[in-house]
Design goal:
alpha+beta, globular
Length: 121
C-alpha cells in the first residue's frame, strides 16, 4: 500500500486487499456491507462496493500529490503533509477499541523505492 501512496496512486483495491488479508489470516469474519474506506475526505468503499469514478480518482491522485515529498530533497525533511486513510469496520461502540486505532508510517522515499526495485532476490 505504501508504494501506491508513494506513486500518488489511489489504489483502493490494495487497501481492501490488506484489510481482507489481515482479517482472513486471523479468522475474523466481517460483513463487507458494514465496511467503509476513506482516503482523505473521499469515501471510496461503502456497503460492499467501490465508490469511484474518473473524477474521484483525479481528486484522490491530486490529494496524494499535494502530500508527497519532493524526491529531490535528501535527508529527513520533516513535514506535516499526511495522507489520511480511514478504515471503518462498522463495529459497535462496545468493541475492543472504541476510539479507533491510529497507525503512523513514513514516506518510502525515492531512494528506498529505487533500491528495492533494482535487485532480484
Amino acid at each position: 500500500m505504501k508504494t501506491a501512496v508513494y506513486g500518488n496512486d489511489p489504489n483502493v483495491g490494495r487497501i481492501l486487499s490488506a484489510v481482507g488479508d489481515y482479517l482472513g489470516s486471523r479468522d475474523i469474519s466481517l460483513d463487507s456491507r458494514k465496511l467503509s474506506i476513506f482516503i482523505g475526505n473521499e469515501m471510496v468503499f461503502h456497503e460492499g462496493a467501490f465508490h469511484l469514478d474518473k473524477t474521484k480518482e483525479e481528486i484522490l491522485s491530486g490529494y496524494l500529490k499535494e502530500r508527497s515529498q519532493n524526491p529531490r530533497v535528501t535527508g529527513y525533511p520533516q513535514h506535516d503533509r499526511c495522507v489520511h486513510i480511514k478504515i471503518d469496520l462498522g463495529e459497535s461502540e462496545n468493541s475492543a477499541s472504541p476510539g479507533g486505532v491510529h497507525v503512523y508510517a513514513s514516506d518510502l522515499g525515492h531512494e528506498y523505492v529505487h533500491e528495492n526495485a533494482d535487485y532480484r532476490s
